[in-house]
Amino acid sequence: MAQKQPANIVVGLDIGTTKICAIIAEIGDGGLEIIGVGTAPAQGLRRGVVVHIEDCVRSISEAVAKAELMADVKVQAVYAGVAGGHIKSFNSRGVIAVSSQDHEIREHDVKRVIDAAQAIAIPLDREVIHVLPQEYIVDDQDGIKNPVGMSGVRLESEVHIVTGAVTSVQNIVKSVERSGLKVADIVLEPLASSRAVLTEDEEELGVALIDIGGGTTDIGMVIDGALRFSSIIALGGNNVTNDVSIGLRTPTKQAEILKCEHGAAAYELVDAKEMIEVPSVGGRPPRVVPRRQLVDIIEPRMAEIFELVKGEITKSRFVEAFRAGYVITGGASKLPGVCELAERIFGAPVRLARPQPVGGLFDSVDDPAFSTGVGLILYAAEGRAFGEGDLDDGSLFDNIIQRMKNWLKDFF
Questions:
Q1: What is the full DSSP assignment across 242-273?
Q2: pLDDT at 83 > cutoff 70
Q3: Coarse DSSP helix, strand, coil percentages of the chain, rounded to the nearest 5 percent
């Protein structure tokens, strides 16, 4: 019989366009251990946004039920990932004068400078999801991670602010709540993925993370250990599948199978003589076509996605600041030749990444498609270490205000 969710249990819920993934993990003395994994085909979502709540609720319930059965735990609260074209982010700076007479910087000064950085006009139809400190500057000395205890007259902060459309975020929360669960926190998906796949060296040197999902491609640039730039492109693996379906005149489900079993993102990897069988529609007999005909459809669409990513990164002022190259993950990144194609477009080193190992049933999630889900439980575990994630009867958006204060502890 499943038991009530213990305090040391965290649950990540990756609400993707293609699949819903629930991962249950236990925080123990030996670290984080995965004890339950459940997946279900995503219904009612389009490009990371809920378009039919009841279908989405059924998918969430199915995924969570499978994870509960495996873990023998009754899930009550989850950390839900959020993405979609409605996500917008930007950097901001706050400046204050140190208030104490001895000019020693204290925790309340750090809180004040963060408040100053987020004191900007945000449209009423948008909601702040994250306020992520990047660095502090004390009397023109930059690169400071923790200014508490230092002496100074002027304190500045650089922060990364992530916002989302209120209605889109509320629909995600509503779908989870209608499944009988509470949302402990909402987490930007590229932020979660970065927790799961990036190494410390990459985060310090500077790296661009590209998470290619079914409906969206998420971008996150981590430099000097902090998220400096993030963006969401409303294109993903589903667009490739649709192109295959149209180009080869085959049903969408069969196009997905063809893409996964025979697809590639680099033309030169495929033998010109290799043939594949393509199912037809309307009861017509299947056709035999060259495999390169399939790759001729896939490669341009993947190239388009990478070109759009390159364009987004070029817009940022950090385009020359990351020295560790690019890291690609996500379900659509598993096509053979993806790294070769990306290196050709970016002109820089590219690495295909899967989640870094954690304890327990890691074999069940050792796949690029689970990077966001694993990142969500890592994010949740970090929050619990600082006493975050406790739910009350207030709304999630009320809890976000309190959570902003707790984010400062990431640097202490």
A1: HHHHHHTT--HHHHHHHHHHH--S-GGGS-TT
A2: yes
A3: 40, 30, 30
pLDDT(292) > 90: yes
Gap between the Cα atoms of 194 and 132, Å rounded: 14
Q: Where are the beta strands (DSSP E) in 175-322?
A: 182-188, 207-212, 217-223, 226-233, 275-278, 287-290
Q: What is the pTM of this model?
A: 0.87
Q: Are residues 301 and 345 in the same domain?
A: yes
Same domain, 60 and 181: yes
| Same-domain check for residues 54 and 192 | yes
Nearest to 196 by CA among 410, 68, 365, 35: 365
Q: Count CA atoms closer than 13 A to 101's CA, side-chain side.
A: 0
Q: Which residue has the tokens 């990431």?
A: 410
**Which secondary-structure segment (H or E) carries 68?**
helix 53-71
Q: Are 365 and 374 in contact (CB under 8 A)?
A: yes
- Give the tens place of pLDDT for each residue, 164-218: 999 999 999 999 999 999 999 899 999 999 999 999 999 999 999 999 999 899 9
Q: Is the dihedral of CA 245, 249, 254, 260 positive or negative?
A: negative
Spatial CB neighbours of 266, under 8 Å, sequence gap ≥ 6: 295, 299, 336, 337, 338, 340, 341
Q: Considering the domain boundaries, does residue 285 fall inside one?
A: yes
CA-to-CA distance for 201 and 207, rounded, in angstroms?
9
Highest mean pLDDT among 6-10, 38-42, 388-392: 38-42
166-178 vs 53-71: helix crossing angle, rounded to 10? 50
Residue 400 in domain: no
Q: Does residue 118 carry a pLDDT above 70? A: yes
Question: Same domain for 369 and 329?
Answer: no
Domain that holds residue 102: 88-163
Residue in this structure with the two tokens 């890291």, named with its chain if needed: 327
Rg of the chain over all Cα atoms, to the nearest angstrom: 22
Residue that wins the pLDDT comparison between 365 and 395: 365
